[in-house]
Specification:
heterodimer; A: six-stranded antiparallel barrel; B: mainly alpha; two-stranded antiparallel sheet; about 5% strand; globular
Chain lengths: ~450, ~180
């Protein structure tokens, strides 16, 4: 026996060590930790290493910043000029895009779509990697002490990075989208085809589960679909590089990530995502003239009759300046804020905070303080007081709507008194009441726009 | 602490005796630790570095220098488990995958070190090249057979990685030779 043990001692030790590790593997697979839990040994190891890595990374950043910010300033003036010019160009582009966004928000509001917004983020520094080719996880210098939890989205301004896989007190492990165990709900931006973006051992990312009879063009953008409940919908993911028929019924679509996953230094951890309806602040205030034009499409306006005596459509006239006595809030003398669209009040005839989506006619007039206060009406012309039921603005108890329809104008004092009693604060600013138009009378073109409205 | 000379069991080299080196405890503890730290830290700045496996090289170095299969497989086990700690989320990368792979490598490298001269650059290159392929094979075998993970094997990638490690290994071993105590 001693001879046997002595002769095969090395092999026996090897077998024992391997056996112990295999048993350990089996136990880990058999009893995996719950989501968010971390094995104690990993917690200790990462917690021990994190301060060293953080110190090295931050000292390196400090030296780099010292050099780039205070010493090496060559070409900064020229770069500043170029950036200013670029900002100018981007402002023009932004103005154009914001119009498109407003239109999309209006449609979403009408369809009662909820939007997801990235509410708050935490900036974090990448301080480590897995150090392994088989795993592409990253370590960041923010952990549970900073409010990080498992499954939070990690992004950069360029695109998504991954999600939080494990959390430690002062650090967290990020599973990037190009890891072979990662999966992200993604969609093609133009064709709206949805699939799952998966990583591969070699670091490539592919969009899977799109049928092979679909046409996917290289260069098409890929965005998050929101289906994984981790990433908000619409964040940039990457761009299609190639699309080939796969082994099964699905296409093999190779995607190059938007974020430079191989050069990450700082990332943003999305700590809060909110879902809400598109806000009226995003839509921009609407003039009452537009609403009137929609309400009374068949009533011709005197001013619309041209020299030849042909009456123009009233909708065209509605895009002009607002009539007197409109564009006012229900509370006399209070600063009228843009109305918030209530989903129930978007139908014609409901009154209250009816929103007109007429393009071209809406000139933003935020915070229009106008003496021409009229009460909101319902569709029958009955005077209507803005209540929490028909106006979100009134519901907040703060600002009355400026987009109420004055089909029957009430005395400002009356409307204000009613509103003040229910929702609005008392009017402090003394304003001049407007002349009362006749109930259900067609609006007249005012000589001057209401106070607070921007110049036409 | 000292260099022992042990008789050669085989006749694979021209020398009749090979040296067994000793290391200080500080070197035994710190060199693997620093190797793992560099392995997880440097790729933040140089992303192609994961192709280079410093803990694997350190395992080979200690195993071939000490020429004891038991200490070789123990060294490989400890270094591999340290690498496992940082390698990934628990479900996809449980502790022991690198541990098993480096245990086998440590044992075989030290066993080979008993039989052949592993101190010259040529043999170091060949040993590193060959053992890297074996290391990857054991890792993939564990992932596939024990954990049912569908990892993709790429011969070309493994060959390139092995070549890179073998070339770099010559310089790393040369540097680590300074810690040998004679």
């Amino acid at each position: 026996m001693d001879t046997f043990l002595g002769r095969y001692r090395n092999l026996i030790v090897l077998a024992a060590i391997l056996f112990a590790q295999i048993i350990g593997l089996a136990l880990q697979v058999r009893r995996p930790t719950d989501a968010g839990e971390t094995r104690l040994i990993r917690l200790w190891a990462v917690s021990a290493v994190t301060p060293i890595e953080s110190a090295v990374i931050h000292s390196q950043e400090w030296v780099k910043n010292l050099w780039t910010t205070y010493i090496y300033l060559h070409g900064v003036r020229r770069e500043n000029r170029e950036l200013r010019a670029e900002i100018g160009q981007m402002k023009i582009e932004q103005a154009r895009l914001s119009e498109d966004a407003r239109m999309a928000h209006r449609i979403q509001a009408l369809l009662a779509f909820k939007e997801q917004y990235v509410d708050s983020t935490i900036a974090a520094q990448v301080i480590g990697t897995s150090g392994s080719e088989q795993s592409r996880v990253l370590y960041i210098d923010k952990g549970s002490n900073d409010g990080i939890t498992v499954d939070m989205a990690v992004i950069t301004p360029g695109g998504i990075v991954g999600k939080i896989a494990q959390v430690f007190p002062d650090s967290a492990q990020v599973l990037p989208i190009n890891d072979q165990f990662s999966g992200v709900g993604a969609a093609l931006k133009d064709s709206r085809l949805q699939g799952i973006l998966k990583g591969a051992p070699n670091g490539a990312t592919t969009l899977q589960y799109i049928m092979s009879d679909e046409k996917v063009v290289p260069g098409e953008e890929v965005i998050t679909s929101g289906g994984d409940r981790i990433f908000p919908k619409g964040l940039p993911v990457g761009r299609v590089v190639s699309s080939e028929p796969g082994k099964d019924l699905f296409l093999n679509i190779r995607v190059i990530p938007s974020a430079r996953l191989d050069q990450l230094e700082e990332v943003l951890v999305v700590t809060k995502i909110t879902e809400k309806m598109p806000d009226a602040k995003d839509l921009g205030p609407l003039r009452a003239s537009d609403i009137l034009a929609e309400r009374l499409p068949t009533v011709p306006n005197k001013t619309e009759v041209d020299a030849a005596g042909n009456a123009k459509p009233s909708g065209a006239a509605a895009s002009g300046t607002p009539p007197a006595g409109v564009g006012t809030g229900t509370a006399a003398g209070t600063a009228a804020h843009p109305a918030t669209p209530g989903t129930g009040s978007n139908k014609p005839g409901v009154g209250g905070t009816t929103i007109s989506n007429k393009p071209g006619g809406a000139v933003p007039a935020p915070h229009a303080t106008s003496p021409d206060t009229t009460g909101g009406t319902n569709g029958t012309g009955k005077p209507k007081v803005a209540t929490p039921a028909n106006s979100r603005a009134a519901g907040t108890g703060a600002k009355p709507s400026s987009n109420t329809v004055p089909a029957a104008t009430t005395q400002p004092g009356e409307a204000g008194a009613q509103d003040n009693g229910e929702a609005s604060p008392p009017a402090k600013k003394q304003v001049k009441p407007a002349p009362e138009p006749a109930p259900n009378a067609p609006p007249e073109q005012p000589s001057t726009p209401p106070a607070g409205a921007p110049p036409q | 602490m000292s260099t022992r000379v042990m008789p050669f069991r085989g006749s694979l080299t021209s020398r009749e005796q090979v040296s067994v080196y000793e290391f200080s405890w500080a070197a035994i503890i710190l060199i693997p630790l620093v190797a793992v730290l560099i392995q997880i830290f440097i790729p933040v700045k140089v992303r192609f570095l994961p192709i280079v496996d410093l803990p694997f090289m350190v395992t080979i170095f200690f195993a071939t220098a000490r020429r004891n299969p038991i200490t070789g497989c123990l060294t490989g086990c400890v270094i591999g488990l340290m690498q496992d700690l940082f390698a990934g989320p628990g479900l996809s990368h449980p502790l022991g995958m690198y541990g098993i792979a480096l245990t086998v490598i440590g044992y075989l490298a030290s066993s080979l070190g008993v039989k052949i001269d592993v101190d010259n650059p040529g043999s170091r290159f060949l040993i590193t090249f060959g053992f890297f392929g074996l290391h990857q094979g054991v890792y993939y075998g564990v992932a596939h057979a024990l954990l049912r993970q569908g990892l993709q094997w790429s011969w070309s990638h493994t060959a390139i990685s092995a070549l890179a490690n073998a070339v770099l290994g010559i310089f790393v071993y040369k540097f680590l030779d300074r810690f040998k105590q004679r």
